Amino acid sequence: MHSADGRWSEAFLWKERLLEYMRSEEYRPSTVQELCERLGVTSAADFRAFVRLLNEMEDAGDLVRTKNNRYALPEQMNFIAGRLQLKARGYGFVIPENEAEADIYILQTALNGAMSGDRVLVRLREERGKGAQAHREGEIVKILERGNDRIVGQIAIYAHHAFVTPLDKRFPEDVFVPKDAVGNAHDGQVVVVELTSYPTATHGPVGRVVEVLGYPDEPGVDILAIVRKYNLPEAFPEDVLADAERIPLEIDPAEIARRKDFRGETIVTIDGDDAKDLDDAVHVKRLPNGHYELGVHIADVGYYVKENSPLDKEAFRRGTSVYLVDRVIPMLPPRLSNNICSLNPKVDRLTMSCVMEIDGQGRVVSHEIVPSVIRTAERMTYNDVRKILEDEDEELRARYAPLVPMFERMRELALILRDKRMRRGAIDFDFDEIKVRVNDLGEPTSIEPRPRSIAERIIEEFMLAANETVAEHFHWLGVPFIYRVHDEPDPDKIIHLNLFLHNFGYHVKGSAGGKVHPRALQEVLNEVEGKREARMISMVMLRSMQQAKYRPECTGHFGLAAEYYTHFTSPIRRYPDLAIHRIIREVLTRGSLSPQREAHLREFVAEASRQSSERERIAQEAEREVDQLKMVEYMQAHIDEEFDGIISGVVPFGLFVQLDNGVEGLIHISELSDDYYVLHERQMALIGERTRRVFRIGDPVRVVVIRAVKEDLRIDFGLVEHLREATYVGGEGPGAIVYDEDLTPKERRETERRRREAASRASGRRERDDKRHRARRDRKGEARAGVRLSDWNDGEEERSAALGDMLPHELPYDAWDEEYPDPRAQRGRKRGGRGREDEARPSADGRIAGGRFEAASTRRGGYRTWPTWEADGGSGRGARTSGNGRSRPGEKPAGKRKSEAGKSGKRGSRKKRKR
Q: Please, what is the end-to-end C-alpha distance for the chain in angstroms?
């Protein structure tokens, strides 16, 4: 069907007509003959092609064939196609391909042989829960496409067989390896096993060893295992390398004559010190009318990488270059990325140029997009430009004296462009990037936060301007294109963000119903700038955002407050940029596209958008995992050392803490031994039941490193000192938490005395609970016989598990106010009777200030969520369970919940900031 362009375009039109007909209200499940009659398929050749199309669409999950051989859309039969993501405990979620659909929970018993990463078809079951706790459950009925045919793991060899335990916890089953399929592997080595039989309901996966990576402690094996785990292709196939070798390293003079010549302009590249693929160059000059001329010149990779060539197919498969701490896995072979396509200084290079005339307010008043040729004057680095502009380094200013005036004009223009972006409402999260440095053996030597200097901001603003200009130009031409889009935040997340901001006295303006303009979010960031809660609010706001992706429709970029946006500026390392370069040249040279060509390109950009978004996510996950791996390894050399950090996350089982160097780890709740702590979701805080001590996201702490486990990518901290002590005094809003630093010295001393007394009482209670649970554990010992330790002990301390068995009347909420009154109320009485005890007032959460909780009988033990009466309509139910008392899908009872390690880590420094 793809052998001839005419046949291909006819099949594509059939597909479009078929989907349009099947989505209409008049459609009923139909046979092949009925569909042929409806669509006018008459000849034998057309019938065979049409049947092949139906089979392809069925295999892809676009259609469902019923038992009586009738075809329908999946959604019409209560089916949904999506990608399965398994969790370590065996259950999983299917992320639907339709982004408007909510995720579908899959029980372990409903997997039907599917593995994590598989593309599957799900039959929806009933919806469980009500209101905010509602969720969809489903059963996998068909595996459309296997996501993995190879698994990385550690091999254990026995007399007649072997087992490979996957390093990826999302694959819970060991892979059986027959004795004759072990190869050269030795017991305990890390290997790559190719699956020869996938799991079913009756047996597990079977495979054979195809590569031995080495022992886990050998240099480089850890990163190589991650490379294999994410199936990142390091070596290029022979036909791809041969295709690259055929590309001449000299430019044809005839091609130069067909392009606009910018070799007379003073053009420079500005990149990182270690960059080799220099794909963008810039120039700025003043025009006679006072405006600026900004030229953004991008390597014309599409000229060399022809459509459907081996190079193009391999670039499509890879999607993006991957930047790990000790290596780069490029999208294109070095002959292109580091040679003929790299804009090296003082040599001629073919480019695509976007030249913009920009006025003093940052508006692009005119522009030109043309194939061009350039010759860069210098290869500049971010460090050198920063030293020239910020440090005014005399030696560098003298060395680059002819370029210094242009750098100063660049700074002027970049600040104008940024000011324009901020005026229209763009959001600027100014977080430092983290760079993990390693030695030749792959051992981490340092972890360095790297703030953005003026040099990085110059390139960032210029690339943003070019991307927006190109996107708008080709959007109005109406040609098939790939856009970079960032959807509006989920309304529920904005509502929760507003509830959180209310605790500090802030509010996102114009957010009724969860709809919000990015300017409103930036206004909050501006308002909190320089305040102690600034970092905390920035982190929470960032987590409320959607993830940017590629799409064939121009739906805008929320974070940039841009109506039009694409990725035009990095074709060496991103496939969407390469693809649109070819479309740009074709449109500029031909003027228009034939209907057949336009139809072909529309399907191509849709597929390229999907593939590029998926490969980008895989690359990001691999980069983050390598960064986290090296951070864990780095912290292994600092066990028992103390560090300052910020509470970056608050969860029922503890506190995530990010150190000043970017490393993130967990203070497990069992380490907070002075009290029982419960989660208050709105305040994003853990609050002590007796002491009312508060650990809140954004609070500074000092921690000690307890352990660092590379196998689990886990760093555990112990609390040394809470550097911003606070007390919960009840209710919601700005006054619910009082920080000690806001109290008088006498009030602080009284506060500390009461905390010590309450902690002492809590300690005695904890000892009694421990004895009771040790006795219970001994009684259950026989019942656990024959069960693997890993099946029972999921990492949770018995001390924490004890909370799950406490009865409601045992919880010490009701004693809070007698033991620990609001220090501000005490202050008020001394200053004239404010806060008198006989004037108890009901607060917003239904409790009486200075009194007792009304709904104590509804509180639960274990990992509890703070009661939220507003959210439950006064029912008193917590936010973590449904009305029938059952846990969320996949959760175990409170006594068996697993302690999770912090696996997040910021990406290292890249060539350019991704948007």
A: 38
